[in-house]
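Hello Y.,

Per our agreement to keep a running log of every chain we model this quarter, I'm adding this entry. I've kept the format consistent with earlier entries: sequence first, then predicted structure.
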Amino acid sequence: MSLKETIENILQDCNVELYDTETVTEGERKIFRIFITSKEGITLDKCAEVTHILSPILDLEPPVHGEYTLEVSSPGIERPLKSLKHFQASIGELVKVKLINTDKVIGKLEEVSDNQIVLLEEDGEKTTISLDDIDKARTYFKW
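Predicted structure for the entry above:
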């Protein structure tokens, strides 16, 4: 079983889902971040619970080489959309898409298929975008 599968199984027992992971270096410190989601939302207590459960397991099977800090959090209100599953879970939400050609499109995510998304822009225009043309995408909250 891979480390990702181990993490997913443990998170399932905690009634949350793995959204994404990332490893970053801030200064000289390595950080392994686990982003979790749940239909009920993510609380600080849930993050602490997951950290408490995962920490000893990751001590035995480290996700990165050397010393690191484990952080568990929600992906946030403006979360990155990296996988088809992320896009499918965000139907009905506002998203901001940066295309490979550097164009940007903001709109309500209306449809997701295997290779494209459909956004309804503020002017009422529907824009179909191939997933292959997307450089970055994230949910967008209009303040």
